[in-house]
Design a protein that fits this description.
Layout: E1 7-11, H1 16-27, E2 31-36, H2 39-51, E3 55-60, H3 66-80, E4 85-88, H4 105-132, E5 136-141, H5 155-175, E6 180-187, H6 193-198, H7 202-209, H8 220-231, E7 242-245
Helix pairs in contact: 1-2, 1-8, 3-4, 4-5
The structure holds nicotinamide-adenine-dinucleotide.
Length: 257
Amino acid sequence: MRLENKVALITGGGSGIGREASLLFAREGAAVVVVDVTDDAGRKTVDEITSAGGRASYVHADVSSAKDSEAMVAHAEREFGALHVLFNNAGIMHSSDDDAVSTSEETWELTMRINARGVFLGCKYGIPALRRAGGGSIINTASFVAKLGAATPQVAYTASKGAVLSMTRELAVIHARENIRVNALCPGPLRTPLLMAFLDTDAKRNRRLVHIPMGRFGEASEIAKAALFLASDDSSFVTGAELLVDGGITAAYVTPE
Ligand code: NAD
């Protein structure tokens, strides 16, 4: 097992990538702290892990709140004795996120609060815990949109993911000598509730699909496997990386018919 004796905290563990990663990390031996604001979904992930014989605990925390972020890390140490893996994964894509002219300041602020400030707060309170554990791995979920511009705009979301990517790079350099690795995971378009709610018509979905060389949306479980690599000692010499798991979208100039 690749995460034996490790404690992992995963934000957004009630759905999509966070849920799949929670289940996978638990199967690989980790004790998992599932964090979400949607309590039913978060508890369901924990129930699935524990009924399969794994170790997990749910904590309600809004990652944009300093108090909640501090409390979720304290919960991990109290429940399982330490924290080794911090997966800052929770994020939102607001339905009215659009171009700069149309996007409201409220949508901008909310998106930045959860997607960028949330990762900052996770690191702010998580890094001291990783130090206490003698080191560890931080994985921040960015996105392929941090690398490419799109004509179907979502300007607040894109800016927030750019912030995650550059924050990750700097933290990786700062903490490299402390045995703390910090990497960004950049998923391509996935068939999760987050994107499917945003691309809510066939026309919108097809507009995105034409750009993916593989010709399909990715699955959350495919991202969870990449997160497992970054979480485990298999990636012991990897820090400051941007791991693109995107069906080839960022490599493409023209996609096959
Ligand atoms: P999802 O909507 O399926 O799951 C996100 C989870 O985060 C939900 O359970 C939600 O309740 C939780 N959450 C939302 N706000 C929160 C908050 N303030 N505090 C704590 N939890 C909160 O989404 P997903 O597709 O699994 O996305 C996970 C991450 O991957 C996000 O950061 C997203 O931006 C990123 N991402 C997704 C895609 C995609 O196509 N789906 C592509 C690239 C990056």
